[in-house]
Write a structure and sequence with these properties.
single chain, binds 4'-deoxy-4'-aminopyridoxal-5'-phosphate, 402 residues, pyridoxal phosphate, 4-stranded mixed beta sheet, 7-stranded mixed beta sheet, 2 domains, Aspartate Aminotransferase, domain 2, transferase, alpha/beta
């Protein structure tokens, strides 16, 4: 097999994106101007696809903490915690997460992806049973796959379907692992966590929730949707990432089971990769402090989400779910999605273009993720851009309102 044969499938994906002139890998942020603006192709562009939910990436407290950590501890750790040892900041951040969640055990990993991989690869054995939401993120599927466990999906956000699948497992349901997310990143819908948890517990299964998109955004204290659903004392494992609300790079896992600490001795994505850099740890720590002490940031995010949601509804767009910081506009075809995405860029607005198979149940999504750092003026400019981008389309504005 030649090298071009090996890469033929990937070339096909690139070419099909090129055919609709919508290859997001071509987008280069030439200059980042703020948490919500960048220069793209020389044009000042409002960013509405960043996952920078709390808008903390330029917050002076984070920048100062990250710069100080870099000066004091260096630019990188140059190895894994098992081989090279932990820096004091790693251990302190784990203590902060454990304290924030009021649990005996927290561990941090180098990315959110590795957190899920690291947990699942360590706790699952070949033959174990996993029942996961069908819309689960790739790293949850990958962790299950690599572990050798038997995994099957329940219908997205459907506790009754979960019940059916657990019932069919018979005696194997006891000790099975049920996995859901909090806020789903593509459609922006939230999981019925209290119901899912109750079903899992009824069958003696463990319950794991990935709060990658909901940590810092939901719950009175910002702990996420498990807090909002009132199940913090029942859920077995909560994972999350530093790369969204926490404006850094890394991931965390917390558990009410103290045994979770033992992951350090067997989790390959923890052991065989370099630990997070001092700057990443310090920024995440400062962001965690902001979540704990400045609830008004979260309130601003919600005000922005409501304003964009109402505005898009008013323009006649079909939105994928109820209001949340992820607002996905359904577009009837891949071609129309690509056309609108390019037209929005021309208008100075960057959203995420989501095409099948990443767009569940629909032809294409224009995914908007809000930030607390957006101003109302920017939200109104985003709405004007949607209006202008839709002009000339016979399917967009108003078409889905009837
Ligand atoms: N879980 C979910 C639900 C995600 O959406 C993502 C990333 N988008 C991750 C985990 C991985 O996080 P990270 O990008 O920090 O590796």
């Amino acid at each position: 097999m030649s090298i071009s044969d090996r890469f033929a499938e990937l070339a096909h994906i690139r070419d099909s994106l090129g055919a609709v002139e919508a290859d997001p890998s071509r987008i280069v942020m030439e200059k980042i101007l703020s948490p919500t603006e960048a220069l793209i192709a020389g044009k000042r562009t409002i960013l509405v696809g960043t996952n920078n939910y709390l808008g903390l990436t330029f917050e002076p407290e984070l920048l100062d903490a990250a710069c100080a950590a870099m000066h004091e501890q260096g630019s990188g750790t140059t190895g894994s915690r098992m081989a090279n040892g932990s820096f004091a900041g790693h251990a302190a951040l784990e203590r902060d997460f454990a304290e924030f969640y009021d649990v005996p055990s927290a561990m941090i990993f180098s990315t959110g992806y590795q957190t899920n991989l690291g947990l699942l690869m360590a706790i699952l054995r070949p033959g174990d049973k996993v029942v996961l939401d069908s819309h689960s993120h790739a790293c949850i599927y990958d962790g299950c796959r690599i572990s050798g466990a038997d995994f099957l999906a329940f219908r997205h956000n459907d506790p009754e379907d979960l019940r059916k699948r657990l019932r069919r497992l018979g005696g194997d349901a006891e000790g099975a692992l049920v996995i859901a997310e909090g806020l789903y990143s593509m459609l922006g819908d939230i999981a019925p966590l209290a119901d899912l948890c109750a079903v899992a517990k009824e069958y003696g299964a463990w319950f794991m929730v990935d709060e990658a998109h909901s940590f810092g955004v939901y719950g009175e204290r910002g702990l996420g949707l498990c807090e909002e659903a009132g199940i913090l004392d029942q859920v077995d494992f909560i994972t999350g990432t530093f790369s969204k609300s926490l404006a850094s790079l890394g991931g965390f896992c917390v558990s009410r089971h103290p045994e979770m600490q033992l992951l350090r001795y067997g989790s390959r994505p923890y052991i065989f990769t370099a630990s997070s850099s001092p700057a990443n740890i310090a920024a995440a720590d400062a962001a965690l402090r902001a979540i704990r002490t400045r609830p008004e940031i979260k309130d601003k995010l919600w005000a922005n989400a409501n304003r964009l949601y109402d505005g898009l509804k008013g323009l006649g767009y079909e939105l994928a779910s109820t209001v949340s910081p992820v607002i996905a506009v359904r577009v009837p075809s891949k071609e129309e999605g690509a056309r609108l995405w390019n037209a929005l860029l021309d208008e100075g607005v960057y959203v995420n273009l989501v095409l099948p198979p990443a767009a569940p149940d629909s032809a294409a999504l224009l995914r908007c993720s809000l930030s607390a750092a957006h101003s109302f003026e920017q939200i109104d400019a985003i709405l004007s851009a949607f209006k202008a981008a839709s002009a000339g389309s016979d399917r967009a504005v108003g078409a889905s309102a009837h």
